Amino acid sequence: xxxxxxxxxxxxxxxxxxxxxxxxxxxxxxxxxxxxxxxxxxxxxxxxxxxxxxxxxxxxxxxxxxxxxxxxxxxxxxxxxxxxxxxxxxxxxxxxxxxxxxxxxxxxxxxxxxxxxxxxxxxxxxxxxxxxxxxxx
Length: 137
Hints:
2,3-Dihydroxybiphenyl 1,2-Dioxygenase, domain 1; single chain; globular; 9 strands; 2 domains; 137 residues; alpha/beta; 18% helix; 2 helices; three-stranded mixed sheet; four-stranded mixed sheet
């Protein structure tokens, strides 16, 4: 269901898309580690393969694409963050456990604000995800 922005523009969905040269590893981090549902995937579309994951339902998406010729994917700074607010401490620990079981380890956040708010992990491309133990803003 579209939500009206203050300007009256109806936005039905939001997608954050980014390239990677490690599609399988990145998708495993978000899908198997974080537990995000796969909404769709495609192969060979104008030289691109990709996967779209729900965040957490289908109104908000993460899309990861890989071009057959590769991509100039510069490493992000340590303060480029995707923050997921997970209020249930049991569920938060489950996500942390899945990521650690896949071989991902906690990293020190660049901004000390996040240090006592939850857990910070890096995906295979170096993008950081904070699992924040609050109900959000």
